[in-house]
Structures are given as C-alpha cells and as structure tokens.
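Weekly structure sync, notes
Attendees: PL (lead), two postdocs, one rotation student
Agenda item 3: pending single-chain targets
PL asked that the sequence for the first pending target be pasted directly into the notes so everyone works from the same version. It is reproduced below exactly as submitted, 285 residues in total.
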Amino acid sequence: MPDTENTAALLRIAEALERLAPPRPLAPDLERADAFVWQADSQRLVAVPAVSRVRLDLLRGIDRVRDILLDNTRRHAAGYAANNALLWGARGMGKSSLIKAVHGAVNEATPGALALVEIHREDVASLPHLLHVLRGARRRFVLFCDDLSFAGEDTSYKSLKAVLEGGLEGRPRNVIFYATSNRRHLMPREMIENERASAINPNEAIDEKVSLSDRFGLWLGFHACSQDDYLAIVAGYAAHYGFAVPSTTLHAEALEWSMTRGARSGRVAWQFIQDLAGRHGRRLD
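Predicted structure, written out during the meeting:
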C-alpha cells in the first residue's frame, strides 16, 4: 500500500477514535456564580444561580455555634488560617442551613469573596480531582458535604482523610471543608468493639474509625431544642413574614403541630410556617 494510502487510513482511524472519546471537560468559570455543585460523572462544576437558604438572623437557638462558624468563615474569606468544620447532632436543627446562611452573610458583607461548592456524599472518592480543579483558582472556597457518614465496609473515607490533612499535597489554602452529619464520629462503631475484640491491638481498629473526625478542627454540636427555643424559632419566622396572628394562637398551633410530628426542631418550625402560610393564602419567598 502506498504511503499516501497508509497516511489516509491512519487519519481515518484517528478521527474515529476522537469521535468515540468523551469530550474534554471545559475549564470551569469560577467567577460566574457564588455557588456550584460538583458533578463527579462529568467532572465539572455546575453554577447555582440562587442558593436555597434562610437568613442568618432567622436561625434561633444555635447562637454559640453560629458565631463560631461565622468567625471561622470570615477568617477564611479574608485569607487567614481557618479550620475544617464538622456540624453534627440532632436532625432538623439547622446544620446545613447554617452553612448556607453563613456563606450568604459573608458574601453580603464582601460580595464575591467566597464560593460555596457542594459535593454529594457518594462522590467523595472524586474529592482529590475537585481539589485539583480549585487549587489554582483566585477565589476562596467552602466545600460543603451534607449528611456525611460511612458504612463499615466503605473505604472512600480514606480519600477524605488524605485530602483534609494527611496527603502529600494537603488541602489547598483557598479551600476549607464543611460537613454535616447526625454522627459525631463519621464511621460506625459496633457495640462489640466496646465489649471484646479478637485483634491483638483492638485500640488500633477503634482509632482508625475515629481518626476521620479528628481531621476537622471544629466540632460543632447541635442538640434537640427546648420548647422555648422551638417557639422562638416559630415567632421569628412569623415576624419576618408578617403574620398577624396572636402569640397565644401561634404558640398553641405550633405546639400542636410539633406533637403531630413527634419532635421539636427548626425544620419542624419551618414546616409549620409553610402550613400557616398556605392556610392564609400566602407565598413564602
């Protein structure tokens, strides 16, 4: 076969392979929005035009942890040292809401200072690649993973351990990691570990499971709210949205609502306000 025919055949093969290969992901425009969602399958950041969040001043009963996280986030946005944070505890008490509200408050004071990037729990194994994307960026970022926990046989937590503090490159200086969980320790500990162990050094297996939580410099606990805190949350929402309902009526209806749910929390308070708005023919913006 002449050389020209060989060359033409090779070109056709190369073109066919290029058509079969997936397109290279475009470099993300990290200035186009203040929030992104990481899509691990396509390895790209999708801009979020408007973050679903509540105002920081509407979060009641968590004043201490609110102030700690806000101060930590402000320091990071200003370019100073800051810690990774684990927000753990009772469900529905505003863990993820606080992260989004703090991000909004910081950017309200200093527009564009901080970008929020959400990574889903099942995509944690792709975290090293995401950090590679963010490492050279001019902006500062808060990585946010909601409801983070690991099953006993799940080994993807090792990727998270390495990128938080222990890897060769370490965490980029322009990135901190915030996670929420119902567990204080993200790895499960079976009761059998407390009673007996067949390992020669049983403490080593336990240390392996709690070491992930140790990579977070801030542990912020959220506990079930009291009745007074629950009613204060309801009253705060009602005042913000301008409901002209007598306080005695509002409290009685809110308590009845909580009893039907079997719990008192910020989430239950918000669900009550949504029901109240619907009964009054109102929309909540």
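Discussion points:
- The first helix runs from residue 3 to 20.
- Strands lie at 35-39, 44-47, 85-89, 114-118, 140-145, 175-181, 218-222.
Action: rotation student to compare against the earlier draft before next sync.
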